[in-house]
Design brief:
This protein is an alpha+beta fold. The chain has helices at 2-21, 69-84, 102-114; strands spanning 29-30, 33-34, 36-40, 43-48, 53-55. It has one domain (2-114). The radius of gyration is 13 Å and the shape is globular.
Length: 119
């Protein structure tokens, strides 16, 4: 049962990642496709398609992750959502440092609300 719920939340997060990848600066869109989460042995892992690394998104960034600290914190936030399923009132999606046009950020946030990620 727990893994079924986590699998559903992985799908939710992957949809959100696809939305982010389709807007603005195309974060999560790398040379080998769109990054994603997968459940490996029941645990969420981030698949970075830039270097085809499977990353455990917890704690400090390691050398496997190709991205900045704001994106790293968002990925850790995604992992937490996959595990506990709690909708967020505040999220890294509200951080103003993305360099995305405001209209794209509004679209991403609205999408995140519609799929159950944000309250």
């Amino acid at each position: 049962m727990r893994d079924n719920k986590r699998a559903e939340r992985v799908e939710t997060i992957n949809k959100l990642i696809e939305k982010v990848a389709s807007c603005g600066r195309n974060f999560f869109l790398k040379r080998n496709g769109i990054c994603r989460f997968e459940l490996i042995n029941g645990k969420p892992r981030y698949i970075d398609t830039y270097n085809n690394e499977t990353i455990y998104p917890y704690g400090e960034r390691d050398g496997k992750f190709n991205g900045g600290s704001t994106l790293w914190e968002l990925i850790k936030e995604f992992r937490a959502f996959i595990i506990d399923g709690e909708q967020l009132e505040y999220s890294g999606l509200y951080v103003p440092y993305w360099g995305y046009p405001q209209e794209d950020m509004n679209l991403i946030r609205e999408f995140a609300k519609n799929i159950g990620y944000l309250k």
